[in-house]
Amino acid sequence: MTVSRKAESFDGVQIAYDVSNHEAELPAVVFIHGWTCNRTHWREQVAEFSDRFRVIAIDLAGHSESGLGRTEYTMSSFARDVEAVLDKENVSRAVLVGHSMGGMVILHAARRLGERVVGVIGADTFKFLRDNPGTGKQFEQWQYIASDYKEAMQSVVSNMFSETTSEELRNSISSGMIAVDSEVAIGAMKGMADDEPLFEMARDLNIPKFTFNASGRPMDESAVKEAGIDLRFLPTTGHFVMNEDPDGFNQLLSEALEQMTD
User: Fold this and answer.
1) CATH of 2-131+197-261, one of 3.40.1280.10, 1.10.287.950, 3.40.367.20, 3.40.50.1820
2) Would the pTM of this model clear 0.85, i.e. be above it?
3) What is the per-residue pLDDT across 202-213, written as a single tens digit (0 to 9) for each?
4) Are 54 and 21 contacting, i.e. CB atoms less than 8 angstroms apart?
């Protein structure tokens, strides 16, 4: 049974989330969506793993059913949204799973939460860990969407899909992303551009670390491996790997969770 709840974050913003199998004693598996996305993108994973784990799927501040009104949509503030939910649910041990921007969020959350986090798993993320976000892709995209919001959103979102992405999946995800409040979309992209390089943060986490990425998309594989992250590829070129290949993603996730929960 899945229950929808809300937790109050550090600045009073209400954070919406779903929790399933809340009596499970194993570490909670906590799903964090990407930029302008929402918790429904994890529906295939929630359905698959709720019989074995306590599963939590979160809408970060400003996204979908969570509240607006935050001054700055930074990665560290999103990490505090995760903390607020774990506190509300009395979670003492968690595996954090983050897609895209959510990968940045789970690294911040793991550093903040310390021993409460027993593992982190990325979904098509951790691609350029050594890069300075302030001079890289996030900065360019922030400038783009801030200057021509409507055109930029259409362009940035459409580039996240592959030629083989079904029209139904493309439309369902795109419509939700484009519907996000422009202040949140621009603010969260600025939050990524203003963030610190992630290599040392990832490397210094002494817990199991994985990422399951799309094949053929640009990334710095050496940085991922040097940071101690176990990199696996899925046979899709779409950014939404957990939706493009849910069976393959779930198999990799199951294997990783077995290592983290023995």
Assistant:
1) 3.40.50.1820
2) yes
3) 999 999 999 999
4) yes
